[in-house]
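Hey, can you fold this one?
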Amino acid sequence: MKKYFSLFCVTVCLAAAVVWQLFSNGNLYLISVIILIISMLPFLFSFENSKPDARLLALTASLIGIAVVSRAVFYLLPQVKPIGAIVIIGGVCLGAKKGYLVGVFSAFISNFIFGQGVWTPFQMVALGLVGFMSGLIFRRLKADRISLSVAGFLLTAVLYGVIVDTSSVLMMAGDFNFSSALAVYAAGIPFSLIFGITTAVCLFVFGKPFINKITRLQMKYGIK
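Sure. Predicted structure:
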């Protein structure tokens, strides 16, 4: 049950934020901060308690750096970003909890280029969950080109897309109702599809070779 505790916390936080916004007109900035802090704490405590050595820290930091650069180099192409693919590879190679951290910090650091804002915590949680879920999925499922591509598309187009679009709903829908929320979600579908397709293509092309190289590094230097 412990392995699902972090995912449970994230789900509860997101649900609480939506309910609060719907019924009490809560401050969106405060809600975002609460989501960020509560969702990250279990992963940070778990990572700290695992006493990671310098080799694991270096590999984790390298994946975060690659993810940030992969988003930055496509600055002019909205949603055409390989960052989701790198985060998924991090989850596959390092496991669910560390995959979450790769996603969270990749979103946070890259937003110093793309712009920080009230949307940042939602992007951090969303990309973190992409890394977390990929770690869970590929702990039991063999990571080949097809499985990586399908999982990558679903995780980024659906999971990431819904969470990030929820932040848009909370920011843009002044008079919150079903039709206005549906309009915002519908407007986000093309962007989510582009991000999902980009992730799937990147994973199909270089996902498996990248995973193999990281696995060899882990075996050579005893990184767990």
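The helical segments are 5-24, 28-49, 54-72, 83-94, 96-114, 120-140, 145-172, 178-221. Let me know if you want another pass with a different chain boundary.
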